[in-house]
Amino acid sequence: MKKYIADSAVFIMGNCPVAAADMVTIPQVEDEMKSEDAALRYDLSKAEGLMVEAVVDTFTDAVKEQAAQTRDIEKLSRTDLGVLAKALEYKEKIGDDAVLITDDFAVQNIATRLGIVVMPVAQRVIKDQIVWQKQCIGCFRHFKDGEECPVCGSPLRKKMKKKVSQKPKTI
Ligand SMILES: [Zn+2]
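Above: inputs. Below: predicted complex with zinc ion.
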């Protein structure tokens, strides 16, 4: 069974699709609940089964070591380090079933380097993308770009190929 390690953003943003009962966080996260909404979400999550576990120092040390190599350590708060340490602890226990939920790029970077699976808080939906290409007005062949058809020499005109609707990224 998957276990999700929750960054403070999970409660600050409030649109995380993961059930509270599948989440674990660290005590320091509570200090970052500055808004009433965030504090309420945090309390509600605890009531719904969110686990709050203390950070184990040995894992913090391992995270610091990794972060120091990339200079990300300057960007990481004590809470960031703690959340990473908790994620690393779970990774040792359950491998890829340990998923760190965070939107922080420095945290994501370190997590990836430590081999921890990362998931963004909000599953952003990328809007439809229009793909343009060129079509020859003479022979109707399609090309990526250019002004003149390399086959028949007729002019190329811009043509909308398709709309690409990307699905949100899932684990
Ligand atoms: Zn042509």
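Residues 3-119 form a domain with the Rossmann fold fold (CATH 3.40.50.1010).
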